[in-house]
Each structure stands twice: as C-alpha cells, then as structure tokens.
Amino acid sequence: MFKQSVFIKSAANKSGWIDDQIPEVCFVGRSNVGKSSFINTLANNKKLAKVANTPGKTRLLNFFDINNSSFRLVDAPGYGYARISNDMKIEFGIMMEEYLTTRPNLKVVCMLVDLRHKPTNDDIQMYDFLKANEIPVLMVGTKLDKLKKNEYVKNEKLIKETLHFNSSDIFVKVSNLDKLNIKESYEALIRLLEV
Length: 195
Ligand code: GDP
Description:
Elements: E1 5-11, E2 24-29, H1 35-43, E3 61-66, E4 71-75, H2 86-102, E5 106-114, H3 121-132, E6 137-142, H4 149-163, E7 170-173, H5 182-193
Parallel strand pairs: 2-4, 2-5, 5-6, 6-7
Antiparallel strand pairs: 1-3, 3-4
Bound molecules: guanosine-5'-diphosphate.
C-alpha cells in the first residue's frame, strides 16, 4: 500500500498538467467499476478519491502525489456513463487521447473492469487504444468478493478473450470490500513503474 498519498490538483486540459519528470500511472475504467474505492484502498484513505461522486460528471484529471514524489497517480473520469451528453463524451475522448498519447510522464495505465461482467464496447475501445499506443497495462478485475471461484475463473477467461488481452500485461483480481490482493496489485504497479 502507499506509504503516503496527497491530492495535488485537478486539470481540465493540458495547461493544468504538471511539468516535471515524475512518472505517472493513470487509472481508467467505467463509472461504478470501483475505481475510487480501489484508489482509496491502495492509499488506506477512505476519502482520497471521492467515492460515489455523481458518475460521469467530472471531466477532470485528478493528480495525486504518492510516496513523497516517488510517482503520481492520475485519476481519470469514469467512462461509459449512459446519461452524459455526446458533447461530454467527445470532450472526454479528446482529453484522454491527448493525455494518453502525448504525456511523457505516463508509464502505465491501471484499467479496471468489473469481474462480474463481460467487457463493454467502451472497455474494448479503451484497451485497444492503450495497446495501439504501446502503453503497459495493469488490468484490475474488481468485486472479487461477489463471485464464487468457478465464476471468477470463467469470467477472467471471458474478459481476457473479449479484450484480446495481451500476455505481456498483468491481470489481478481484487476486492476492495474484503481487501483481497491489494498488496499484489501495489507490487505489480511498482514493478511496472520501475520506481
Ligand atoms: P467508481 O465510479 O469506479 O469510482 O466506483 P466506486 O469506487 O464509487 O464504487 C462503486 C460501487 O461499487 C460502490 O457502491 C462501492 O462500494 C462498490 N464497490 C467498489 N469496489 C467493490 C468491491 O471490491 N466489492 C464490492 N462488493 N463492492 C465494491
């Protein structure tokens, strides 16, 4: 788990990004997948990323300093929320594309999927985009506590098949509720960041 974590700032566009050499991991996933909960669990701070803020509303990248500037966590808005306007979807796409393709600090993307469900078209598009841009991915399957073993084994296979999961990426299954595999996720992240 993180030794230290602190919110730095939100940015609506490139001018708000931080100009230095500190490596970044960007967290992406569908609204409600458990991204805020996972960040809070990693940080052991229930309030770091706001859990249950209106899904899909914020169009900002949120920057957090981790382990006294050892790296930064960049929390992206959840995608796939049906009730946001097309303009907002386009805005989200432009902002994410710019960040993911031009940010030299970005070393790895942590992408979250719900272990109970087959990935959606949004998930497939996101993963395709990350792979087309050769960005290493730590895939985190959430809500492990809601499934029996035979179910999560079957679903992990389905998720990997649907996404054409690349064997060079890492897949972990977690429960934020029961704190399962949180240490493993953190260690995988540190390895990918090489910090
Ligand atoms: P976000 O929209 O991706 O940031 O998702 P949240 O972290 O706000 O979580 C969405 C909902 O899923 C909340 O009700 C959480 O309590 C719940 N949740 C998140 N992670 C888990 C998990 O690992 N297990 C279970 N059972 N519920 C979870």
